[in-house]
Amino acid sequence: MCGIIGYSGNLEAGPVILSGLKQLEYRGYDSAGMALLTESNELYLVKKVGRVAALEKEIDPSILSHCGIGHTRWATHGGVTDTNAHPHCAGKVVLLHNGIIENYHTLQKQFGFAQTAVSQTDTEVAAQLIDYYYNRCKNPQQAICRAVDLLEGSYAFCILFTDVPGKVFCIRSVSPLVAASCEQGCFVASDLTALIAYTNRYFVLPEHTLLCLDRTGMTLTDLQGNPVDPDYLEVSWNIESAQKGGYPHYMLKEIYEQPEAFNRTVTPRIRNGLPDFSEEKIPDSLLQSFDKIRIVACGTALYAGMIGRSLLERKGKIPVEVSIASEFRYDPPVIDDKTLVLIISQSGETIDSLAALRLAKQLGATVISVINVKGSSIARESDYVIYTHAGPEISVASTKAYMVQISVLYLLAARIFLARGILTPEEVRTFIGNLGNAEKSISSVLEQRAEQIRHLAEKLAHCAHAFYIGRGMDYAFSMEGALKLKEITYIHAEAYAAGELKHGTISLIEEGIPVVAIATQDSIFNKTISNVREVKARGAFVILITKEGVHAAEDFCDIQIEIPQVDDFFTVFPIAVVLQLLAYYTAYAKGYDMDKPRNLAKSVTVE
Ligand code: AGP
What we know:
Elements: E1 3-9, H1 13-24, E2 31-38, E3 43-49, H2 52-58, E4 65-73, E5 88-90, E6 93-101, H3 104-111, H4 123-137, H5 140-148, E7 153-161, E8 168-173, E9 178-182, E10 185-189, E11 201-204, E12 209-214, E13 217-222, E14 232-234, H6 239-242, H7 250-256, H8 258-266, E15 270-271, E16 274-275, H9 284-289, E17 292-297, H10 299-316, E18 320-324, H11 325-328, E19 339-345, H12 351-362, E20 366-371, H13 377-381, E21 384-387, H14 400-419, H15 425-448, H16 450-460, E22 465-470, H17 473-489, E23 492-497, E24 514-519, H18 525-537, E25 541-547, E26 559-563, H19 572-590
Parallel strand pairs: 17-18, 17-19, 19-20, 20-21, 22-23, 22-24, 24-25, 25-26
Antiparallel strand pairs: 1-4, 1-10, 2-3, 2-4, 5-6, 6-7, 7-8, 8-12, 9-10, 9-11, 11-14, 12-13, 15-16
Helix pairs in contact: 3-4, 4-5, 8-14, 8-15, 10-14, 10-17, 14-15, 15-19, 16-19, 17-19
2-deoxy-2-amino glucitol-6-phosphate is lined by residues 298-301, 345-347, 350, 353, 396-398, 487, 603-604.
């Protein structure tokens, strides 16, 4: 998704903007640009396809400026070209944008903007519209307010006016923007990672408010010009926690951060051996009142939800449905005020999940969200929010966020079992004790299996296809494993219910095809192994993941990866690490950039 940064202050704006853009690279992009208002109040603008490093080479170091804006573009409307890169100019207006203006064609026709357009983007129409009103009212704030009043869709704008020196104007609807001020000046950005080098105190720009920042400070007003007080937030992050910490990639760093992320997320929510959500003010009365649960998310967060569903249904006999957020709205969902909706999202900005939240609330459901980014849009619109404490997850491939999402779902499920009398307090204490031990099983895979997996990955790197199979919870684990491999190695990987293979897909199994078979659920172990024998008999190269001590015969296993002996419900934690490392080392063997895989963005803020 696009990255935005704006600055006005005492520092040289060019380097500030550039370093901010580098911090935002993880969001995924294909071109970059910046605009500076120089000390002689000239506009200096440079933009091009490619990496921020390529943009850096184009910048004239002699330019003196203390005010500017920068952008990394993830193309939606218009191809990946220098012209379509942001910022876009119209008259005195210089603008960059994250989001989609859905009615840009209509506006283009209504105002005749096509004649003067130079790009194929929706964004340029927004710049033209603001300039149209600016020429008439000569007031930046009024011009912006009148223009956005006509816009449909999502936007986060950063705007310069070439005849208003030193000032950056910002406004948002749906797409994210955070702002901060400190002794070096005032900043605005798509997310905190671009600001953390300067301050850890920030606020989320409220939707439909107008922020004006310059080197002396910030003013925040509503669209009628009335002052608005920002809600400041603070995080314990620092720039080190957002850097690689000596690892070759953010992804590997974040894989190895999982024990501490798990501990930070789980430990504070256990009191007297029982799960405790008093901090989140989630009442037991709510957990007792609903008659079904709907879990809604995307990608890895969705697969975390599948694990949560398994636990809630298998152990608690509670009806749970898991929905893909982008499908949820068009089902249409059968939910009401007796439904508890759980929205899971690392970024808290995934637009499909945000839209699902809004629909769920319209239909009367109560929403609890599980979010990693404090103050994000989904967090702010939920009835209750349970923050995971994974810290900044920079790699596009989600690892530690998945781990802590599952840990929160386990804590919440345990609280539900307790509140509804499904388990006794003693039974819940035992469950929570097992959960606490999961941190050790995560660490044991990191310490004892990484080398074996790294060697195995060198074999996988030459494959074009791979299958991940399992039954029950093992099937849910395989969904995330296949996604991890796909998204960073570009190997076509497919997760399949092991028992379903015979109904068609086994026709794809041929000599040498790698099959990652997950067999950690004791109750169905033999069933799974019989399916594994079927693929082995057809030439598959079987990578079998089992609990320690399981004998894996040659007729169904080529490589066995063992995880610690833990209760079936808790094998997800060590297995997740195995599958993450397998994907990471396969991508490493292929020489790919697993932090910024092609076509992908860290947070999908457009539909
Ligand atoms: C997973 O590795 C991907 N980064 C992607 O599937 C991600 O999980 C999905 O886009 C959801 O993002 P969110 O958790 O920020 O909502």
